[in-house]
Specification:
Blueprint lengths: L1 H20 L6 H21 L3 E5 L2 E5 L2 H10 L6 H7 L4 H14 L2 H22 L6 H7 L2 H4 L4 H18 L3 H14 L4 H15 L10 H27 L13 H19 L1 H7 L3 H13 L10 H23 L11 H36 L4
Antiparallel strand pairs: 1-2
Length: 384
């Protein structure tokens, strides 16, 4: 019954946001009303839901989120100096400082939740209005899942919502703004480091004047450059990141579940069809190189997942952009083909079948991730 309530609640909030941003409705007052109702529904549940943990027959049972209980306990440890608190509580300095300030201003965890979830809602809505490329309900539901998994994993999902704006600014070549937002996200959760690499690589890619250094064609050199970046990323992910963060192995995140296998297989599939249909993709999908680098980083993540707990968080950081790339492929590349334009019947049949199969795979993964969100993520974290 609790799970059914959350499913209905999440669908309702996302649907109201979908109606508020839809271009089909011109009445601004009505759209503002949709947004206001969505915010009220969201914030009431986010702040007033039960968060507690207790033992039953020696087993710890979490209600409201395993991590949420830890955040609540850490919040009430802030009755000390800021320096002592940062040294006492595990977490990034930016987030811990914010929590310490909230404690000394308000003193109650519910006020902290109100501020955090209001920030999360505003960040998501700003992204919907500014950077959202696809206005479908399914896409909003997938990308907007961070609005609700933040009930448990506050730091990670707040960082994800900030990273949405990092990539939006990166697409508009606002490198400095993207870098500043990314540094803020990095002060909240260290998994944002993965996007810092993307910013550096993309800046070099866009600003390297190839003609000064080579007589070869621009496309050839950029391919070579991409392979060079791939090697660098592999070295960073395989050797430097475990040193920078932690060598602790948290098997609970990835290695004990088939979810990790499915994600990596799908990322390899995306990389393969990108290579196979690169001409169409490069012509029809703007900023496709950013998506390609994110996919490559996701695949490289496989080699470090057994050596550092943060590897799982890297995957969560890039997933919203994997969703965006999927919808872009579905809309611009693997669309229904006009049969009358194809001359040879056998060639026509073969092309249609291949593209339909790819579309089906993309749809299957979309619905699988929606199922995973409702029936795995919400329950494993103890939210419901």
């Amino acid at each position: 019954m609790r799970l059914f309530f959350y499913i209905l609640y999440i669908i309702t909030v996302i649907f109201l946001i979908y109606r508020a941003q839809s271009k089909q409705y011109s009445n601004k007052t009505k759209k503002s009303l949709y947004l206001l109702i969505a915010y009220i529904l969201y914030i009431v549940v986010a702040v007033t839901r039960n968060i507690e943990g207790h033992y039953i027959n020696g087993e710890f049972i979490a209600v409201g989120g395993i991590d949420a209980i830890s955040y609540r306990n850490n919040f009430y440890l802030a009755n000390t100096s800021l320096v002592n608190y940062i040294n006492l509580v595990h977490g990034e300095i930016g987030f811990n400082t914010f929590m310490w300030v909230c404690y000394h201003l308000f003193g109650e965890f519910e006020f902290f939740l109100f501020i955090i979830h209001t920030i999360a809602f505003v960040l998501f809505w700003k992204y919907v209005k500014r950077g959202l490329q696809f206005k479908s309900f399914l896409y909003l539901l997938l990308v907007g899942s961070s609005l609700f998994t933040i009930f448990n994993t506050i730091r990670n999902d707040l960082a994800i919502l900030l990273i949405l704006h990092v990539i939006s600014n990166l697409k508009q070549n606002q490198i400095c703004k993207a870098l500043i937002i990314n540094l803020i996200a990095l002060s909240i959760h260290s998994s944002s480091f993965v996007i810092l690499i993307i910013i550096v690589v993309y800046f070099l890619y866009k600003n390297w004047d190839i003609k000064k250094y080579t007589k070869y064609s621009e496309s050839v050199v950029k391919i070579i450059f991409s392979f060079f970046i791939l090697v660098i990323l592999y070295i960073i992910f395989s050797y430097l990141l475990p040193i920078l963060f932690s060598s602790t192995e948290y098997n609970v995140y990835l290695s004990e579940t088939i979810v990790s296998v499915s994600i990596y297989i799908f990322l390899i599939f995306l990389l393969f069809i990108t290579y196979k249909y690169y001409h169409d993709i490069s012509n029809k999908i703007e900023h496709h190189i950013i998506f390609i680098y994110l996919i490559i980083i996701g695949i490289l993540n496989y080699f470090i997942q057994g050596r550092m707990y943060i590897a799982y968080r890297f995957i969560l950081i890039i997933l919203p952009f994997v969703y965006e790339y999927m919808f872009a492929l579905k809309k611009y590349v693997f669309i229904q083909i006009d049969r009358s334009k194809l001359q040879h019947f056998w060639y026509k049949k073969r092309i249609i079948n291949i593209r339909y199969i790819i579309r089906i795979i993309l749809y299957l993964f979309i619905y699988y991730k929606i199922y995973d969100f409702f029936f795995v993520q919400l329950q494993v974290g103890g939210i419901v």
